[in-house]
User: Fold this.
Amino acid sequence: MTTSQPGSNTSRQTPSDDDAANSQADSITAANIVDVIETVIDSLDSDNTALVSTTDGGYVWKFKYGTVEVFVQLTGLSSEDTISAWSAVLKLPAKDEAKLTRKLLELNWSGTLEARFAILQNEVVVLSARSLADLSPGEISRAITLVATIADEQDEPLQAEFGAS
Assistant:
């Protein structure tokens, strides 16, 4: 909002006006981000298994893709918040963990693009995470799709080779 003093030809933005404009921009962006995430999930979730829950200012979605469950978390709606997608592919402990570690590191280099393998709560997961700053709809789609696809392609071979007896 622009304000001017009577009889003056200058205008200025007041701090409260800047805050309101930033807040409005964040909420418009937030609505778009949530819509994009839900559109991507709808396109991947052929069995209509998607669930969503809201947390303190954020969201968590869960859906089934092939043989895996995929999670998407939006921590909030400002540019400092993050979007993360992950899917478990193998429970730990596993057989021959040294060989498993080497295989996962090699896959991280050659087969995961912007996603990566990691360990979360005693499970090997495929994961992608990024801040919302300058995030495009294409990046959202790519991150969720990569995690779902890589997890679905790798879970059964990893479980067959390294799954606990």
About this structure: Residues 15-44 form the longest helix (30 residues). Strands lie at 3-4, 11-12, 51-54, 59-65, 68-74, 82-91, 116-120, 123-131.
